[in-house]
Write a structure and sequence with these properties.
single chain; 178 residues; mainly alpha
């Protein structure tokens, strides 16, 4: 079987399975509530460090004049499972997959904390339409691009484990058949 077909098929199966898992068991679970509260706490800490003087109550970050609530589906879990699916499906040694998962998922969490803190900042200091645009347009696109680039960066560090597209007589892939 073509290695790219195998990767794509396994990736699709894993991505669909994790979506089903998210909507069937994670969404609305007490574990998700704890995770959302943790996101709020860390984001609130970041905001306080940069001088925003906020309080965190459950999943809400507020300062008395503006509040942002971290809602389910705005938790970056689905992007993390998408990255996990891509790394697991890709042909690589288990150790390299584990390192990719550890670094990649940590990086996505850092980006998500940045997203939450910046959304609070935008909402507290700019017009509602600016907040809505940042929340519904800018950050979703940024998170998708960051997730894709994270996987691409990890896969490129592996070299070419699929060993496709390279003529047999060219280790660098620069030779052309005429």
């Amino acid at each position: 079987m073509d290695p790219w077909v195998r990767f794509t098929g396994l990736f699709a199966i894993l991505a669909i399975a994790t979506e089903i898992l998210y909507y069937a068991w994670i969404l609305g679970s007490p574990a998700l509530d704890i995770y959302l509260s943790l996101l709020a706490s860390v984001s609130g800490l970041i905001l306080n460090v940069v001088g925003q003087d906020v309080e965190v109550v459950g999943t809400s970050i507020w300062n008395g004049a503006f509040m942002v609530d971290i809602a389910p589906e705005c938790d970056a879990i689905q992007l993390c499972t998408l990255l996990m699916s891509a790394i697991i499906a890709f042909p690589a040694q288990l150790g390299k997959k584990l390192i990719g998962l550890l670094i990649g998922l940590s990086w996505l969490q850092i980006v998500n904390f940045t997203r939450i803190a910046s959304l609070y900042f935008v909402g507290a200091h700019f017009a509602e339409s600016t907040f809505r645009n940042a929340h519904e347009v800018v950050w979703p696109v940024v998170l998708i691009i960051v997730t894709m680039l994270t996987w691409i960066a990890w896969a490129r560090r592996l070299g070419d484990p699929l060993d496709v597209g390279r003529p047999a007589n060219s280790p660098s892939g620069n030779a052309r058949s005429e």
